[in-house]
Amino acid sequence: MGINKYSDLEQSEIIHIFEYFDFPLFFISKSPCGMYYLNYYIEEIQDNVDKWLFCRISNKERIDLIHQKISVLELLNRLKNKERLYYLFIDSNLNDKDIELNVELVNSNNFDHESFPEEDFYVEYDYVTDTEFFKVEEDILDSSKFKMVLKDDENSHDINLDLFLNVLSNLKKSLNDVATDIGNKIMGNKSEHQVNLRIDSLQPSSFGVWIRTEPKDTDLFEVPEKSLSALFEIIEDIQVKNPIEIEEQIEIDESFSINTVKSIKKWLKEISDNEFSLKLEATTKTEGLNKVVSFDRNSFAKLDILTKILEDKSEKYTEQINIEGLLTSINTSNNRFRISTESIGEIGGKMSTDMFKRLKEDKTLQFRVPSLIKAVVEKEVINDYVEDEHSVKYTLIYFEQPVE
Where is the DUF6575 domain (predicted)? Predict the structure, then answer.
């Protein structure tokens, strides 16, 4: 969490107080390294020992809370469901500030419904800044028509056709991955809203093109508009935010899935590798206000942040598993096998080097097909989001079959 000791708490600064009675009951603090923490008082469980809800939140979650874009109960439930929320127990009698904090992850086993507010509400006042909060209405972008401008160092009016098609294809992929994330948040399952793009007209300055979105069906949830707005927000964040804030929004707030991070990184890398700059222009749906975001040389280096996130999410591991099933195929010439199991389905792979060698040398070592089999297999999983390599491989290292 970043804050681990009593001394860490003491060094934090309270920047918002939403409820106060003799002492702050509900507030947001900021650590010396710039991390935000939500603090919500529950009760005194024994003399001088207080129980709190405690969690690191992103700057975006902080802003959404004070702009009344999210309610308190909605935020707490989101944090609990994502396993980010903790119970914090503070003993005011302790004098040693280097003692580790007593925290428990809130889960289904220890969750106390009475630790959450009985009724939902929005934060309305900040005692620190003496500020009253009001709901900030979000004016989403009109996705029916927006402009994309690509500009090289010579400000040319033409572009390589393959590059242009790749940029458009990657734009569509990025927009649809964002749409999937937004659809999941709205409806709680995979979004079926695919956003199609249509070229409307060319723009004479630099190389620009007007683009229209074409949802397949009428979208009552405005997923295309919200997706385009979110894409503009991502580009703007890369342009203006520092690396810590960008990483925080993706890693802590989890605004976007790993697939979205991967597709946006691929789209922008295609542009930066060819030494072009990107500009997107659109108007808001209600007020008709112009919105412009850019990705240029000043932002190229920030793609390393997305690469680091993809590296951190990548994984490679090997484990041995015991299986029982039906040996359906074996090829001793090409070293291939297939086993049908109830536990993990049908798997296939190769025999280990030692087993394959023994099979060639020991004529008594034979397989019966089809036949029941008990086996130990080595499972190797690779999910490399940087190189976009994903695989699951099985190696048979031991087996036994019933005597017939």
Answer: 10-171
